[in-house]
Amino acid sequence: xxxxxxxxxxxxxxxxxxxxxxxxxxxxxxxxxxxxxxxxxxxxxxxxxxxxxxxxxxxxxxxxxxxxxxxxxxxxxxxxxxxxxxxxxxxxxxxxxxxxxxxxxxxxxxxxxxxxxxxxxxxxxxxxxxxxxxxxxxxxxxxxxxxxxxxxxxxxxxxxxxxxxxxxxxxxxxxxxxxxxxxxxxxxxxxxxxxxxxxxxxxxxxxxxxxxxxxxxxxxxxxxxxxxxxxxxxxxxxxxxxx
Length: 243
Prior knowledge:
The chain contains nine helices and seven strands; from the N terminus they run αααααβαβαββαβαββ. By secondary structure, the protein is of the alpha/beta class. The protein has a single domain (16-232), classed as Rossmann fold (3-Layer(aba) Sandwich), CATH 3.40.50.
């Protein structure tokens, strides 16, 4: 019984049942993109996403880094979900991806914007190691990785911050308040029921203003999303350092 509890606490290592070859994965991703609003996506960039898929699945054989293992789920809920953002808004760079996990949305965006600086922040060591391997093997020269959680002590200057369902909006705004430059934007990838968080974030209206709120679905799916964008208008005073 004790060993079972320990396994549940650590989490079960879920391995992919099948890892497609580059050719098979590329054909499948082409088909997914064609049927879900991305039929015009450049072939060269799609090939880079396939490279990332293979690295992700091969690493998953050794260690848990992602909960999505079915190719269709990766194609829609990871790749298309990430790539919808630049269709809805203009991203500002350097762009910091807070709590990127195994690289979403940061890695697909770094492929899409190959010449733009993107910073990936992740606090789980095994995922940090994976991200570094992806950066090196795919030669993503503009990607920088921070192996830490982001809070008010993080002051590396950026013009944009993006997160995908990491924490509630007010918490994110506070945590990035010292690194985001005035005029920079926070892009929050959320589910449809985010109104209470937006309401709660009004207490920070002296420092951040809501400038965009997009309700949408991932194309040709029932998956509802909200993209909420804030602009920083003033820097809050730093949190006092505890003695």
